Queue: 2 jobs
Job 1
Amino acid sequence: MSLREFVEGGYLQELNREFLHPLGLAMSVIIEEDDDGNVEFGGIVDSRDDPEGIVFAEDMIDKDKVDKVSEEFAEKAENRMDKYGFIIQLPDDSI
């Protein structure tokens, strides 16, 4: 998967919103404003000293991306539960 597909598919938004932001971290990308629109990894923003973590600005969350990634997660979760007996692997879970 390309970084562009990761961003456009909503995975970056949801990784940040659901996991990194509450920890005070954010994965960033740089999208070139030229005809190619190249996408590059921008680094990890570290605001771990902020006790509340990071939040998106009010109008920055794309709800369509939330729905798409949530639906994909639910499908994978069902399959993982059926096959492994867990969704999120704990350190002592073995397959």
Job 2
Amino acid sequence: MRTNGNAFFSILLMSVLIALATCPAGGAAEPVKPARSDFQSLEGRWIRPDGGYVLDLKDVRPDGSLKAAYFNPRPIRVHRAEAAKKDGAITLFVELRDVNYPGSTYRLQYDTARDRLTGTYFQAVERQTFNIQFLRSR
């Protein structure tokens, strides 16, 4: 019986060594990285060169939800922000609701070739729409 016991432990030891040798990082399993969505290219700090307005986009998810902050130069409350795909292009909608920003909106499209956001800004107080762009800051 003693031989069977030694054989069992030898087989067990070999199995463990093979498992450790084939597992990356000395036995630690590599974490599974989530697939990068097209919308994640929106993440970052964007500056509107015609006035220094800043749009900061974070936590962009594959469903188009995201966290947005807007500064002029002080923080302006972002009521709603969402990314979408329209005709193969990545679009971004941002609605501001704060003092002097009663529903002003940005309707933007991501220009992948130039890494910029272009579109329109609707200034709710004056009820005017302007063509604008944001350039990536970081």
